[in-house]
Amino acid sequence: MLLGTFVAGAIVVRQAINNTALQARQSVLPVVTASLDFEALAEIDGDFPDLKSVTEDIAMQIGELSYVNYFEFSLFIDPRTRLDVHLPEIDVEHLDTANMDGNLYGEYNFFWMNGISQPEVIHIEEGLFELVEGRVFTEDEMSAPINQAKPTPILIPRVIAQLNNLSVGTVFNLYYEHFVLPEDAIIPDEGFIVDPDELWHHPYNNWVNVSYQFKVIGLLDIDYHIASHTENFHMQLVVFNTVFAPNWKLDEMIRAQYEAHIQWRNIFNIDGGRSLEELLTPTVFWVLEETAYLKAFTALATPFLPDFYKIDAWTHVFAPLYGAMDNMQWIANLILLLGVSATLIILSLLTLLYVRDRRHEMGVYLALGEKKTKIVLQILFEVVPVTLIGMTIAVLIGNIVATEISQGMLHQALLEEGVWITGSTFVGEWQEFSNLEFMGMGREITTDELMALFEIAFDGQVVVIFYLIGILTVMLSTIAPIVYVLKLNVNTNLCLKIE
Description:
single chain, alpha+beta, 4-stranded antiparallel sheet, 4-stranded mixed sheet, 16 helices, 15 strands, 47% helix, elongated
């Protein structure tokens, strides 16, 4: 029964690990994007490669894969605002600010503007944000209107509306910084040659905030935990201050700023800077039919991506959980193997002793013409009921023991990891952030949430597997009696002939 308890516990833990992995996969949003593979970049020796972008053609080819439900092109900018921004709540007791410079909140006077290419906003469609008032965009609003003087429709978080007394229908301004040459400026044909340290004090280096009008059409509700570490705080700071507007408006603002920036570069003979094509390259989000398709989708989509790009999903937030479960599974497999092996050996020996004590009885049966099959079945009928009683007790005790030990091991392993997981990882000297992280498509995963995924389920499947293994072990342990009976048959025949 003791060995059965270990075997039952190992089976329970293995089943819990499989169920947990399934729950983890199902809890990941079916939204993926493409991002740079920093691990691959870290292995480069020599000159840094000329990285290409994920073009709209590539995005559409991937979007045609059967696993994709729909996809979204999104431009992103950070317009300035004179409104109050939302500062997330902080877990003061646990947030470590010892290594931080200055104020945690800093100087924030901008929003994160997320471009939308179709009326269906991914964040709302996938249940990340909730539309609590107003409406989403219409098909007509997805195209630039003839009358550009009209305010652009925009969705904003409800917390922003509450902070600034905004409501559906309110019009407000956002600002984008442009270079504006003074009216009386005199520019040499060859431009200015200015020392970089003096450039910012040059009287012609004049940057102003150009205003753009927006009209609130809907308010969004966002649900997040209290920020328990600085990275999570900054992620929430972005998400809670994210607004949504049609892509054409962001395109217009980017182009206007780029043209002003080109003028500034020409006047002050400044080389470099990002091209307009780079600035207007959207981030692509593919929404899969189901999260279960993620692995297959990744295998099909990766060949379409440029070099040093990868499919970015929100799966690596579960890395600490998977790491801890891998160790537990190795231990469970070892216990299962040793338990079954030891049970097989011990039962075989016990059964052999049991049969030896009854060799004369079975010899008489054979001498009277009883079939060997019936003798073997008789032995099984005598052994199996006792074994089943012991297995029933073992599986009940094993479930209790496995639950306590496995949950304790997992919790300790996660605490040692110091788990507060968002989407970033460290690769060499670089910190790699997921594009999903700052788009509101991910959530902080705490130790308690990871533990909640690990659930010991004492269900029918566990019981069936345990009894199948147990009965099979008992069946195999009768091999020794069967061999003994065969030999006994020969010896009995010899004895009868002598008599």
